[in-house]
Amino acid sequence: MNPFYRIFGGLLLVLIDIHLGQIEVLADFIGYLMVLSALNGMDGNLKGMKGARSTALIISVLAIPLAFIGQPTGTTMGVSISTDLITIYHQFTSVVHLVLSYFLFYVLMDWSRNEGNEDIRKKTRKLFRVYLATHIVYFALLPFSINIPENVTIPLFIVGLAALLILEISFLVLLRTYHKEHQNRVHM
Amino acid sequence: MKGKTFIISLLIITISWGGNLWFYQSKQLEEPIFLEHYYGGAGVFELYYLTNRDESSHVMSVEFSDGTTLHAKSDYYGFHNGNPAYGPDVQSRSTHYLLKKTGFDEQQMRELEVDHEGEATIHFNDGKTMTADIGTVESSELREGNGIFRSQGTSSSSNGRSFRTYTVKEDLKIDSMSSPFPEVQDDLKMKLYAPSIDLTGTPDAGGPRSYSKELDEEWSQVAGAPLENIDFPIDMKQGDRIRLTMQEKPDSIRAYSYEIEFTGTSENGTPFTQPFLVSNHPQFTPEQMELLIERRGSQ
After folding, report:
1. For B230-244, what is each residue's pLDDT tens digit?
2. Is A136–B12 a contact, with Cβ atoms under 8 angstroms apart?
3. A74: confidence class by pLDDT, cuts 50, 70, 90
4. What pLDDT, in 10s, does the model give residues B179-195?
């Protein structure tokens, strides 16, 4: 299995949440470990690789408890976000996830440059900008939801979550493209 | 995006979290704030109080200043274990607060002859206890009808308007009016209509259709004269209608349920007393909640 496919699989595992009671069946930390092992199998000199590896390691450890503490109260009791420690821990993990994505984008762009594939590099660059900008705006605005009325936050929440989901899927699709490029190269 | 920009972005996210959590924390109440209640033993007895939005406890019992203790009706908490903001006792909610209500049994209150003023000791179901000024709570005997006034209808609307209408069965004279809580009248505009009063208007025929119309009308168009301008005695003929219309002011943050009494004599000389129930069921806007905290918080 080539490294891009493993990154793809790992991030897909993180995206999909299946809970049996408190326990998450497809635990996020397993997904992050897959990403970490994929990165370890790649060229260490790629730009962003060092950051990506260390972030993947940190989040793999950080995400272990997530599999056992269940969903934060904010998602099980309506849309409004609460201020307990579990919610803050969840949000912190999401931000670390963003850092991981940031480095992964760098790795991808450097890899495609080395391959001399300008098309896919440009595509990656475009998604990188939108992905990052949207996430930063979302994460910066999210905490305001504890202090402003529900009828304002709920529609914003829905729009924001939809945008994030679309971007997350676009990222996965992009990784699949890399996987195919990689395969083509091997077969050539 | 360069590394520096990214780090600054992460910093902004952290500041946003810190700032919002700090603001949220600064809005939290140390303990619930009770409304000022004016209960004269008529109608229901319900305690209203403001809590933090994530507060799931509710009132179990109240010790009054005369030493009596009443337990709250608890029948509707049985199956609720979800978000406190959507509990059965929540009357209004804002981003940070909940206005909650606890009901008590009026029959039991009458048996105990509760007579309370000022500080009460309140026990919550999570074991906490606090003292708070809850206002005045009195019980009274159930009143027997006088057979002279026949209720024509009562109506109330969410804009704080309500009225009570009676027709009289014989000729009579109303000599005076008294209220156990004249201070509540600061929160409440009242107009009394009777055919012999100098009035600003006449209510329609009194059928059900007129109710909703009068509930929405401008206060100046409401039939009758302001209660404080009325000259007693009021003469009434058999079949005349008398209507008391009440309008709560927007900054009213008290809970009340009591009777204004009109006393007089009937045609054949028998004295009578006719009560008019004055009561509200507070529902607060976020602004009224802030007003309550300003007026009654950390006393």
Report:
1. 888 888 888 888 888
2. yes
3. very low
4. 888 888 888 888 888 88
| CB–CB contacts below 8 A, A to B | 57
- Residue A140: what are its φ and ψ, rounded to 5°? -75, -30
Amino acid occupying residue A167 = L
Tell me the backbone φ, ψ of residue A41, rounded to 5 degrees: -85, 0
* Nearest Cα to Cα of residue B256 among B193, B188, B206, B156: B188
pLDDT at A149 over 90: no
B20/A149 CB distance under 8 A: no
Beta bridge partners of B104: B45, B72
Q: Which residue is listed with tokens 């992460």?
A: B10
Phi-psi region at A175: left, alpha or beta (left = phi > 0; alpha = psi -120 to 50): alpha
Alpha-carbon distance A109 to A86, whole Å? 35
- Please report where in the chains the tokens 């660059």 appear, as a residue: A125
Q: What is the DSSP letter of B66?
A: T
Distances (CA, A) of A161 to A17, A154, B61, B162: 15, 11, 44, 45
Q: Which two three-digit tokens encode residue A110?
A: 């450097």
Residue ranges and CATH numbers for the domains of chain B are 33-140 (2.60.40), 149-279 (2.60.40)
Query: Are the C-beta atoms of residues B105 and B61 closer than 8 Å to each other?
Result: no
Instruction: Inspect the interface and report whether the beta carbons of B95 and A77 lie closer than 8 Å.
Output: no
